[in-house]
UniProtKB/TrEMBL annotation:
<keyword id="KW-0472">Membrane</keyword>
<dbReference type="GO" id="GO:0005886">
    <property type="term" value="C:plasma membrane"/>
</dbReference>
<comment type="similarity">
    <text>Belongs to the small GTPase superfamily. Rab family.</text>
</comment>
<keyword id="KW-0342">GTP-binding</keyword>
<keyword id="KW-0636">Prenylation</keyword>
<keyword id="KW-0547">Nucleotide-binding</keyword>
<dbReference type="GO" id="GO:0005525">
    <property type="term" value="F:GTP binding"/>
</dbReference>
<keyword id="KW-0449">Lipoprotein</keyword>
<protein>
    <submittedName>
        <fullName>Uncharacterized protein</fullName>
    </submittedName>
</protein>
<dbReference type="GO" id="GO:0003924">
    <property type="term" value="F:GTPase activity"/>
</dbReference>
Length: 177
């Protein structure tokens, strides 16, 4: 490897937003440590986790930020959004209200970040098919309207969690490389 290549560094800040208890912290712990926490407890302490991923042979550090239980609207500070180049906007497929609030989260994202931020709409808890309250179609349609990527995930059984982050990371990489 040449010195040039060694010096090349990619650090992407990605924020995870959405209503309380949609599974943001568990998506992050599944992605960064392959862990799931059954006890719902308010996120305390850790502001972000850094996970290294390899894209096209390049080492990329994904610095993923988790709201420290500040999910009320406008309680998330601008420092949280500062410098973000990617965002996962999360709802819970078993709770319609969390889906209805997505527009407000997108508004908030747009007031803090410019439109080039790679944005993924995430319908989490897809393992809860038996109590589904938001159809896949509804998710897809909203994503299309708003120009977002769309995916359904389960932090519980790991479905699509890495894929969700990887799509966002690839898109960011595409924009900067
Ligand atoms: P946050 O408030 O958005 O950070 O949500 P948490 O990650 O704390 O999760 C809230 C609750 O939902 C916890 O009881 C989790 O165990 C549960 N949970 C999170 N992700 C999933 C999932 O994919 N499937 C199911 N069934 N439960 C989940
Ligand atoms: Mg949390």
């Amino acid at each position: 490897m040449s010195e040039e290549e060694v010096r090349e560094e990619y650090l992407f800040k990605i924020v995870v937003i959405g209503d309380s208890a949609v599974g943001k912290s568990n998506l992050l712990s599944r992605f960064s440590r392959d862990e799931f926490d059954h006890n719902s407890k308010a996120t305390i302490g850790v502001e972000f986790q850094t996970q290294v991923v390899e894209i096209d042979g390049k080492e990329i550090k994904a610095q993923v930020w988790d709201t420290a239980g500040q999910e009320r609207f406008r309680a998330v500070t601008s420092a949280y959004y500062r410098g973000a180049v990617g965002a996962l906007v999360v709802y819970d497929i078993s709770r319609k209200t969390t889906f209805e609030n997505i527009k407000r989260w997108l508004d908030e994202l747009n007031t803090h970040c410019d439109t080039t931020v790679a944005r993924m709409l995430v319908g989490n808890k897809c393992d809860l098919e038996n109590i589904r309250d938001v159809s896949v179609e509804e998710g897809k349609n909203l994503a299309e309207e708003e120009g977002l990527f769309f995916i359904e995930t389960s932090a519980l059984d790991s479905t699509n969690v890495n894929t969700a982050f990887e799509i966002v990371i690839r898109e960011i990489y595409k924009n900067v490389s």
